[in-house]
């Protein structure tokens, strides 16, 4: 396979790029149980961006898997999930931040690295800033909701080599933060690298 | 200060968005609100977090029991598909409007725009998730007279739109009215329910208190 892009993104680092309509994009969880926080934008108009709530409400299911269409706030279809060896992915858990770590774990944990730091640092390379951050997808992350309305963070269901593959229906800008979180089981307390692939099928 | 919303007929839905009124770059963060409190519904004793770890509002009173943070906002395409389109020319003020359009217009009045839109908190509505992840809209969640009170924990800009929930089963466009009251209330006491409901919220109030002083 001739990949247009084939990069390894270490935990705590980011990646940004454009996937053109018809192109395929794959994220491989190299070592297993690694949350990959991902944002999507209409490349022509980044204000028209991925909407977690539009996406789950349209398919009437909170989990993302094969067949899920990633929708923007205006209802534009950005991408479709066309392959998924993990089984389900989260879009309610958002991205960790220094500020939310202070609330969730300890006020003194502000210094710890977090996804929103990576989103800001990576986003600025493609002209995005804090206003452009919206609720993201967490590939390979497991966040069940109960009928009583409880939200829980469970151990991941991903394993080494599992992947998710998307096809672009609209030229889509993608921004990734490979999650550095050490305070909860979303990365099995051991954040690891992922591989990002982009090609013309 | 607090705002109180009363569902007059029952079955209302009010989309609510929240911003720091002084620096609106700080705004409601749905995932942070959910994961800090381990919830996918909001009711009395819970709070609404910003993306800066601070509490914008707390839910100081609620007779309804479930307000939906995950069902989304009625957009133009959904209005067309669910109800058909009624123009202003023909129908005057009985025309159809999407929540998204109304919210965008209100945001524009404060120099905010599409990049500032967040998921709404759908007051009075319930979306239940089953073991498979399926989302089901639960009709009749809010009775006539249902009341919820949002206490401001900082100077907050609140955008409200009373309109259909995007997942409701209505076939006729008929947004229901709510009564809005604004009143002075006591600040959250040391033993306030919202402060004590979770250790996370104790820290949230502490962080918010530092900001306000």
Question: Topology of this protein?
Answer:
The complex is a heterodimer of chains A (201) and B (213).
Chain A: E1 5-9, E2 14-19, E3 24-29, E4 36-42, H1 52-59, E5 69-71, E6 77-84, H2 98-104, H3 115-123, E7 137-139, E8 162-168, E9 172-178, E10 194-199
Antiparallel strand pairs in A: 1-10, 2-9, 3-8, 3-10, 4-7, 4-9, 5-6, 6-8
Chain B: E1 2-7, E2 14-20, H1 30-37, E3 47-49, E4 55-62, H2 76-83, H3 88-91, H4 99-108, E5 121-123, E6 127-129, E7 135-137, E8 147-152, E9 156-162, E10 178-183, H5 193-196, H6 199-212
Antiparallel strand pairs in B: 1-8, 1-10, 2-5, 2-9, 3-4, 4-8, 6-7
Defining key terms:
heterodimer, A: 201 residues, alpha+beta, 6-stranded antiparallel β-sheet, 4-stranded antiparallel β-sheet, 3 helices, 10 strands, B: 213 residues, 5-stranded antiparallel β-sheet, 3-stranded antiparallel β-sheet, 6 helices, globular
Mean pLDDT of chain A: 96
Care to count the β-strands of chain B?
Answer: 10
The portion of residues forming beta strands of chain A comes to 25-35%
Measured as a percent range, the helix fraction of chain A is 10-25%
Which ranges of chain A are low-confidence, i.e. pLDDT below 50, for 5 or more consecutive residues? none
User: Which strand order spans the largest sheet of chain B, edge to edge or round the barrel?
Assistant: 3-4-8-1-10
Name the overall outline of chain B: globular
What is the alpha-carbon Rg of chain B in Å?
17 Å
The number of distinct structural domains of chain B comes to 1
Task: Name the chain pair with the biggest interface and residue counts per chain.
Answer: A-B, 47 and 51 residues
Supply the number of helical segments of chain B: 6
- Overall SS class of chain B: alpha+beta
Compute the separation of the termini of chain A in Å: 9 Å
Which parts of chain B are unreliable, with pLDDT below 50 for 5 consecutive residues or more? none
> How far apart are the first and last residues' alpha carbons of chain B, in Å?
17 Å
Radius of gyration of chain A: 16 Å
Strand order of the largest sheet of chain A: 1-10-3-8-6-5
Shape of chain A: globular
Characterize the largest beta sheet of chain B: strand count, sense, and whether it forms a barrel.
5 strands, antiparallel
User: How is the main sheet of chain A built?
Assistant: 6 strands, antiparallel
Question: How would you spell out the order of helices and strands of chain B?
Answer: EEHEEHHHEEEEEEHH
């Amino acid at each position: 396979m001739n990949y247009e892009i084939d990069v390894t993104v270490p935990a705590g680092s980011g990646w940004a790029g454009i996937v053109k309509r018809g192109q395929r994009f794959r994220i491989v969880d190299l070592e297993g149980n690694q949350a990959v926080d991902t944002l999507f934008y209409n490349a022509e108009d980044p204000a028209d961006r991925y909407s977690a709530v539009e996406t789950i409400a349209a398919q009437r299911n909170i989990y993302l898997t094969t067949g899920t269409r990633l929708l923007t706030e205006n209802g534009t279809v950005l991408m479709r999930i066309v392959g998924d060896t993990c089984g389900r992915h989260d879009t309610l858990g958002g991205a960790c931040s220094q500020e939310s770590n202070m609330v969730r774990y300890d006020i003194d944990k502000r210094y710890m690295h977090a996804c929103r730091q990576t989103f800001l640092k990576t986003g600025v390379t493609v002209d995005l800033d804090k206003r452009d951050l919206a609720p993201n997808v967490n590939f390979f992350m497991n966040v069940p909701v109960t009928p009583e309305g409880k939200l829980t963070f469970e151990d991941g269901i991903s394993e080494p080599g599992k992947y998710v593959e998307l096809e672009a229906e609209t030229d889509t800008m993608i921004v990734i933060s490979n999650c550095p979180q050490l305070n909860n089981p979303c990365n099995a307390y051991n954040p690891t690298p992922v591989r990002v692939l982009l090609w013309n099928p | 200060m607090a705002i109180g919303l009363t569902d007059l007929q029952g079955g209302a839905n009010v989309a609510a968005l929240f911003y720091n009124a002084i620096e609106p770059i700080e705004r409601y963060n749905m995932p942070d609100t959910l994961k800090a409190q381990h919830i996918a519904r909001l009711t009395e004793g819970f709070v609404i977090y910003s993306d800066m770890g601070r509490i914008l509002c707390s839910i100081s009173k609620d007779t309804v029991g479930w307000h939906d943070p995950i069902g989304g906002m009625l957009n133009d395409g959904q209005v067309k598909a669910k109800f058909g389109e009624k123009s202003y020319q023909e129908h005057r003020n009985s025309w159809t409007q999407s929540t998204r359009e109304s919210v965008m217009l209100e945001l524009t009045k404060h120099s905010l725009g599409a990049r500032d839109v967040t998921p709404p908190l759908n007051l009075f509505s319930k979306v239940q998730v089953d073991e498979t992840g399926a989302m089901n809209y639960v009709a009749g969640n809010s009775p006539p007279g249902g009341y919820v009170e949002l206490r401001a924990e900082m100077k907050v800009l609140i955008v409200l739109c009373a309109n259909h929930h995007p997942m409701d089963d209505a076939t006729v466009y008929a947004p229901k009215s709510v009564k809005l009251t604004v009143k002075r209330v006591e600040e959250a006491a040391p033993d306030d329910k919202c402060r004590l409901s979770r250790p996370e919220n104790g820290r949230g109030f502490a962080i918010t208190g530092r900001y306000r002083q």
